Amino acid sequence: MVILAILGLGMSMTRCAPKGPKEAVTGNAASKVYVAPGKYDEFYNIVSGGFNGQIGIYGLPSGRLFRIIPVFSQFPENGYGYSEESKPMLNTSHGYVPWDDLHHIALSVTNGVHDGRWAFANGNNTPRVARVDLKTFHTAEILEIPNSGGNHSSPFITENSEYIVAGTRFSVPMGDKTDVPISTFKQNFKGTVSFISVDKTSGNMNIAFQLTTPGVNFDLARAGKGPSAGWFFFSCYNTEQAYTLLEVNASQKDKDFIMAVNWKKAEEYIAAGKGKKVKAKYAHNVLDEKTHMTVSTMMDEVMQLDPTELKDILYFIPCPKSPHGCDTDPTGEFIVGSGKLAALIPVFSFTKIQQAIANKDFEGEFGGIPVIKYESALQGEVKKPGLGPLHTEFDDKGNAYTSFFVSSEIVKWNVKTLQVLDRIPTYYSIGHLCVPGGPTAKPWGKYVIAYNKITKDRYLPTGPELTQSAQLYDISGDKMQLLLDFPTTGEPHYAEAIPASLITPNSVKFYKIEDNGHPYAAKGEKEARVERKGNQVHVYMTAIRSHLTPDNIEGVKLGDDVYFHVTNLEQDWDVPHGFAVKGAANAEILVMPGETQTLKWKPLTSGVFPFYCTDFCSALHQEMQGYIRVSPASSSVPLKFSTGKIEAEGTGAN
Amino acid sequence: MKYLILILLTVNLACAPDKPKSTEEYPDLTKSAPEAVLTDPTKGIGAVKNVTLKTPIEQERVSRGLAIFEMKCSACHKLDETRFVGPGWKNVTKTRKPEWIMNMVTNVEVMLDKDPEAQKLLELCLTRMPNQNVSIGDARDILEFMRQNDGDK
């Protein structure tokens, strides 16, 4: 009945929609995406939020939004970027930068297969990479990238999560000579691609080495796998080396490049001491799970390798018309380049690339780097696939799915035969797309999701600003079938989807209070107290249903900085407590069970200020409150605190 | 919000939900304790069936029990008879079986839903005792601390 009703609604809506295709949704679509109340989705969809600097966590096939993870953004909902513990996570060499443009997700892999441990993401604007721990869905680490401008070509990952990469979109002047005329691009501007090692146990990131490259724009990248596991492939545009009106000036050449990097070779050169340490300032911020605090360390040098001196690390492969996507198939043999302005898709062969290198089958050099002949590297071309190919993902049956921005469609083609098998429209102007496990050696298949750049008439209008949109298609049959539209937050760029069974069993439910190593934790009400250190007042506060301890505090003076260190004593799933105090200029905080979080508060006037729990926690949540008294700087009110203590009227300090 | 969750939880306990059929089996995230076997209603409901108390009381357990009390229990329970958020602990070992106390500590959701004595206390206090994830071993230590608090030697 319910399904019928939904279908009926869908039909009547499309009739009113100005452009919506009447035939788009067919037959059993509703039942394929219906996840009954209390049931779980089959996949997590981990979706970049673009300019909101966040990651959205959705369920598939339902398209339901479960959680927003703040990464490069402050988040008033839980105090991320506002609490004293999390502020250092957004520290950079430019100071505190609480926003960024998050484009791409890379899930950790072992032997080329999703392992469900971490999600990595890039910050475009102030170049950074982040690691999200999939046990807690918290941002656990952020590493700034020096010598970069626009970290777009990032954070794609190698077959065993040895490295994630960071290729600079903008080439920039670097080193000692950065204050130069823009017109000296060709002479002074360089690119870099950084290889960031990932510790196998902790996941901690470290810039192992940077390769300096000729001045071009790096766009996207993919690691090799299987036979090509020791290689990485980056798409580059603006080989014209334009520094103004790139729309025209960087679209002059018929072909730009895919840059092939032999990172195993680069590792050998580093081990042989061929690297050069270069001064560079960048922040490295790590969350300590035991103390719940982030520590920011300013780094001061980075290891670089110069591929114009070390000849066998880098090779360019010509690729038509400003390539964007650069995707390796599950076998690791084929590399698919997608020229934004091209009307065909070239597919390169790793075996042929190796032969061409061995035979020195080069057409010349670019910036001191050998350029392999196009025909020598080419396996074949997908002819007339559509207009404006952007990205390609793969299923578990040897098929590829390429998004076409200009012609607004997904095109399915066979990797071996290069024949187009099916095409289906998207609404509208698709950017990235995602097949569960699509970039790995073992795609899970089943669905393809389109992340669209334009929403237009798909939903109820909400003024000039509209929701962003994704679309889910069934790919289990020969023909793709549109199942569902679902709105997304921010602007979705790349996303990955992973079976829930790889994440759900490891999901943390609460932090053990016994393990809480926060220096200001109050592990039990006995430890709750208030201490003065000069003009800092530290409140060691506990929260449990339904009271805060202490809940009466006096003796704070104007000019003091008050630190509320709130420890949630609960030890059960889904019992967070919140904390807010009147006039707090930052935010409230949300404290998970067993966790300690700190809100800094600077009172500006004397008086009595209420504080309370902001997360509805129990029947007596509305009773979970207290008062803090602030007196003039000259006052002699002694510091005192209590909970549940009734004083006779007038016996309190004056 | 939490109201809803509690209600859902209650429903889950009353009749186990079907697992998602299209996917692999998940561990039951709403977890509940072992099935109730009401052999002796005064012992409560849960995994603790028989507790042997020793005389004199075991001092090592008492000191561990005190530490757990201070971290996980003292926010709501006082050591005298006064009711705070929950009942005072004085004489609890004289009025309840050791098994009942340990089941209440380790299996609180089921106890509050099914045990008549626990339900009487809920009606009195009107705050559901939270699950503080106390292991059975830790609950045994807390019990020993309660015995000391009640004057056992």
Helix count from the secondary structure assignment of chain B: 7
Number of strands of chain A: 45
Q: List SSEs of chain B in N-to-C order.
A: HHHHHHH
Quaternary form: heterodimer
Strand fraction band of chain B? under 5%
Largest sheet of chain A: 10 strands, mixed
How would you describe the overall organization of this protein?
The complex is a heterodimer of chains A (654) and B (153). With 654 residues, chain A is mostly beta strands. Chain A contains 7 helices and 45 strands. The termini of chain A are far apart. In chain A, 54% of the residues are buried. Mean pLDDT of chain A is 94; it is low at 1-22. Chain B has 153 residues and is mainly α. Chain B has 7 helices and no strands. Residues 1-33 of chain B have low confidence and may be disordered. The A-B interface holds A 35, 38-40, 42, 499-501, 504-505, 510, 512-514, 523-526, 542, 544-547, 549, 569-575, 616-621, 644 and B 1-3, 5, 8, 17-18, 20, 22-24, 26-27, 29, 70-72, 74-76, 84-85, 126-128, 130-134.
Topology record:
The complex is a heterodimer of chains A (654) and B (153).
Chain A: H1 2-16, H2 29-33, E1 43-48, E2 54-60, E3 65-70, E4 91-92, E5 95-96, E6 102-110, E7 113-123, E8 128-133, E9 138-144, E10 163-167, E11 172-173, H3 185-188, E12 189-198, E13 205-213, E14 217-223, E15 231-237, H4 246-249, E16 255-262, H5 263-271, E17 276-288, E18 293-305, E19 314-320, E20 323-328, E21 334-339, E22 344-349, H6 350-358, E23 362-366, E24 369-372, H7 374-377, E25 378-383, E26 389-394, E27 399-404, E28 409-414, E29 420-425, E30 430-434, E31 447-452, E32 468-474, E33 481-488, E34 495-499, E35 529-533, E36 536-544, E37 547-549, E38 552-557, E39 561-568, E40 577-581, E41 589-591, E42 596-601, E43 607-612, E44 625-631, E45 640-642
Chain B: H1 2-14, H2 59-73, H3 92-95, H4 98-106, H5 108-114, H6 116-125, H7 136-149
Helix pairs in contact in B: 2-7, 4-7, 5-6
